[in-house]
Amino acid sequence: MNILVCGGAGYIGSHMVKMLGNKGCNVITFDNLSSGHADAVLSGTLVQGCLSNTQALRDLFQQH
Ligand SMILES: NC(=O)c1ccc[n+]([C@@H]2O[C@H](COP(=O)([O-])OP(=O)(O)OC[C@H]3O[C@@H](n4cnc5c(N)ncnc54)[C@H](O)[C@@H]3O)[C@@H](O)[C@H]2O)c1
Predict the structure, then answer these.
(1) Given its phi and psi angles, is residue 31 left (phi above 0), alpha (psi -120 to 50 degrees) or beta?
(2) Measured CA distances, 60 to 23, 25, 56, 64 (Å)
(3) Residue 1 has pLDDT above 90, yes or no
(4) pLDDT tens, 4-17?
(5) What are phi and psi of 21, to 5 degrees?
(6) DSSP character for 38?
(7) Cα(1)–Cα(20) distance, rounded to whole angstroms?
(8) Whose CA is nearest to atom 7 of ligand 1?
(9) Is the pTM of this model over 0.90?
(10) Where do the domains of the chain lie?
(11) How many angstroms separate the alpha carbon of residue 45 from the centre of ligand 1?
């Protein structure tokens, strides 16, 4: 199952990404890294982008 975690490079999101990965989910993290860290994303795919960018969200849903 594909699961999108917005803010997945942050404190709470990175724990969510790790837990979902351990449960076998395919996790897509969407984060602009304004306060998060890429190396905190321990599972799946990190897509860097901002939630205010409509085109980036369209691309995200199309690709995943
Ligand atoms: N060790 C600890 O106990 C500890 C450490 C850090 C934080 N906290 C607590 O956790 C809470 C904060 O954690 P959090 O996970 O909500 O915040 P966070 O800032 O850690 O995570 C938010 C994530 O969202 C991303 N983000 C922000 N705006 C975005 C946008 N427009 N588009 C895409 N991504 C965007 C950021 O880059 C970041 O990765 C606070 O209550 C804080 O006190 C506790």
Answers:
(1) beta
(2) 23, 17, 6, 6
(3) no
(4) 999 999 999 999 99
(5) -60, -40
(6) G
(7) 10
(8) 11
(9) yes
(10) 2-63
(11) 18
